[in-house]
Structures are given as C-alpha cells and as structure tokens.
Amino acid sequence: MDRTNLIAELNSRGLRDEALTGPLYKRLAQTLTGLIQEGLLKPGTALPGERDLAEALKLGRVTVRTAYRDLMASGALESRHGSGTFVSSRVERMEQSLWRLSSFSADMRSRGRLPAARILSRAVNTPSPEESFLLGLGGDEPVLRLDRLRLADGLPLAIERAVVPIKFLGHDAGGEGSLYDALTASGHRPVRALQRLTAVTLDPSSAAILNVKSGAPALLIERVSRLEDQRVVEYTRSHYRGDAYDFVAELRIGDDL
C-alpha cells in the first residue's frame, strides 16, 4: 500500500468519528494495527514520517508520535536509524522438522506460502580441497556455486550457499526454483542427508540481506545430501533467521533404558 492509498484508507475509517471513544492516538494506533492484521500493510512497509502523516490526516504531530510509539512498544512497528518507521519485519515462528529431508520450496508450499529465490551469486568453477573431499570429486570436476536469498510471501527468511557437482545438474541450471526439483528432474534426487546446526550471529552483510539488525541471532545449518547409491549430491551452508524458525526433533527412549 503506497502513501496515497494509506492516507485514503485511514481517512475512510473515521478516526474523527464522534461515536468512537478514546483518545485520537489510540484510534490511530488501532486503525494501523487493523491494516497490518488484514495484510494491507505488509512487513517492511515504510510509513510516512510523523509530520507528513499528521498534516495529511489533520492531526497533531504529538498524536501521530504517540501512536507510533505505542505500536513500536507492541512490536507492530520498528524504527530504523536514518530510514524512518516501518511495519515490523518480525515473522510468525515456524517449526521445522529435523528428521524429514525436504526443500525450502516444498516446506513453504506446505504452509500455504509462496516460495521464491533471489540469486545473490552463481558461478561454475572447480571445488576447493575441502569441497572435493566432502563431495568425493576430483580437483578438476566443476561444481555449481549457488548463493540465494530464500523468501516466503516476499519476506526474506534464509541465505543458502549451495555447492553441487555440475554432473548432477548440467550447466544450464537456473537457480530461481527448487534445487531439489532440478536434481530430481535430472534423475539425481537426494534421499538422505546429514545436517549440523550451530547458533551464530549475523555479520552486517548477511543481516542487511535478511533485513534484520547486525548481530541478530541465526541458525547456521550445514547439510551434506546423498543419492541412493551414497554419492554426495549437495553441500549447503544456510543461515536461517533466528526469529523465524524453531527446529524440532522427535526423540524416543531406547530399549536399553
């Protein structure tokens, strides 16, 4: 929703209706909250400055400032130094199973969300010594290096850095869609993987890409995926937003206890 539509929507909701009770700043805060809950104001949307909104709605600047302050205290809005006031980019936390191997795209579709990928870098070159060892490759066998920002409904959730032997994909692999779908289409579907999780904080560059503060918590997941014949098909390092995910696993008591 752009500024013009926001002003029109706020005016249409009768902030000055005499039938309403409570101070004006409360009515403004409640109206903005309603627009956020209805999905008309998306996470990350920039709001007009206090003076601009006050003039457009013919309200006192203190009224707008107090409404913004209350919404920031509740977490609905956030202030970014030097940039202004925005609808909070906090996301509803999701539970992600640790025992089921699936792609980001499949996970998001199962939740009714629209997955997307933005390519940060894409290159075909030779593997590093560590990658050669992990992937079981000769030093001259090319790999695809694919760094992507993964989004759901337009919201950035994870940075994935994948290394895949070209022999399993082909040089024309695009990278916008599901990497697992591309591997499956080429007859090299991963069937098992080993994952390692580490709690980390985001460096300034990664934090900016994920639209969170520098030093924000994240989960680093390193995954090595294998084919049915045990060949390694993928090595991926992913940084997941710490405010978006809870990774869970079902445990069973052993027979020897």
Descriptive notes:
This protein is α+β, with helices and mostly antiparallel strands. The strands form three sheets. It has a six-stranded antiparallel beta sheet. It has a two-stranded antiparallel sheet with strand order 1-2. A two-stranded parallel ribbon has the order 3-10. A hairpin with a 5-residue loop joins strand 8 and strand 9. It starts with a helix and ends in a 9-residue tail after the last strand. 23% of the residues are buried.
Main sheet? 6 strands, antiparallel
Low-confidence stretches: none
User: What Rg is obtained from the alpha carbons, in whole angstroms?
Assistant: 23 Å
Number of strands: 10
Overall geometry comes to elongated
Count every helix, treating DSSP H or I runs of 4 or more residues as helices: 8
Q: Element order, helices and strands?
A: HHHHEEEHEHEEHEHEEE
Strand arrangement within the widest β-sheet reads: 4-5-6-9-8-7
**Cα-to-Cα separation, first versus last residue:** 59 Å
Mean pLDDT rating: 84
Keywords: DNA-binding, Transcription, Transcription regulation
Domain HTH gntR-type: 22-90
Protein name: GntR family transcriptional regulator
